[in-house]
Amino acid sequence: MFILLNKPYGMMSQFTRPAGSRWQSLGDIPGIPSGVYAAGRLDADSEGLLLLTDDMETRHRLMDPQSRHPRTYLAQVEGTPDSRAIRALESGTIVLDGKCLMPASARSLATDPPLPPRPVPVRYRANIPTAWIELTLTEGRNRQVRRMTAAAGHPTLRLVRTAIGSLKLGDLSPGAWREVSRHEVISSLGERALEAAWGPRAPRARRDKR
User: Fold this and answer.
1) 2: Cβ–Cβ under 8 A, 6 or more apart, which residues?
2) Which one, of 9, 16, 133, lies nearest residue 78 by Cα?
3) Going by C-beta distance under 8 Å and a sequence separation of 6 or more, which residues neighbour residue 113?
4) Do the beta carbons of residue 76 and residue 156 sit within 8 Å?
5) Distance between CA 199 and CA 183 in Å, rounded?
6) Which string of DSSP letters, residue by residue, matches 135-149?
7) For residues 195 and 58, what is the distance between their CA atoms, to the nearest angstrom?
8) Quick check: do 1-68+167-201 and 70-164 share a fold?
9) Does CATH place domain 70-164 in 3.40.50.970?
10) Which of 3.30.70.580, 3.40.50.720, 3.30.70.260, 2.60.40.10 would CATH assign to domain 1-68+167-201?
11) pLDDT score of 185 more than 60
12) Which member of 11, 141, 155, 161 lies 3.0 to 4.6 Å from 48 by CB, making a disulfide possible if both were Cys?
């Protein structure tokens, strides 16, 4: 089973809520079948597309850093990034934890994307404009988008994941979900991305009919 969920702001990517946590958990979303887990991470203060599955082999493959499947984000940032900032985001020259990032795809958006308002508005500063950029990454370091935009001089104020491979957020509203087939997931992410972590799947044994 595979489920695409639009994870709302203020919700952890897990079904249990630690004692004393101020965040909600996936268990607070009604109707999600039992036995599924998040095949990836999305911080509680981030929003957007999250893939859930009960297929533990595929989940482990997708969470392996070697899978390198693309993930696309919309980031509302402080200030207006110029061409130099965009090149810095794309070039792979930004260093996090002592290692250079892999090259990414980045572009400025001319208009604000049609997203629903966030329940907790981003901070507003009259003398500092904000802008939206779209980024596509193939690695997933801890809070990578936020850290790399800050390193480029434009801290992220709001972050929304809009695609995993070619699986799209589409018109799912925050907290809404839909089931997709394994074939759709594999064809969208590519068998190559899954094989990169563990190698090709072993062929299933055939049973003779007697």
Assistant:
1) 51, 52, 53, 55, 179, 180, 181, 182, 184, 185
2) 133
3) 74, 132, 160
4) yes
5) 18
6) EEES---TTHHHHHH
7) 10
8) yes
9) no
10) 3.30.70.580
11) yes
12) 161
Residues 78 and 128 sit within 8 Å (Cβ to Cβ): yes
For residues 141-179, b (16+ Cβ closer than 10 Å) or e, as one string? eebbbbbbbebbebebbbbbbbbbbebebeebebeebee
The residues spanned by each domain of the chain are 1-68+167-201, 70-164
The reply to whether 43 belongs to the active site is yes
Residues 43, 45, 54, 55: which is the catalytic one?
Answer: 43
Cα–Cα distance for residue pair 114/102, rounded to 1 Å: 29
Q: Residues 169, 48: contact at Cβ < 8 Å?
A: yes
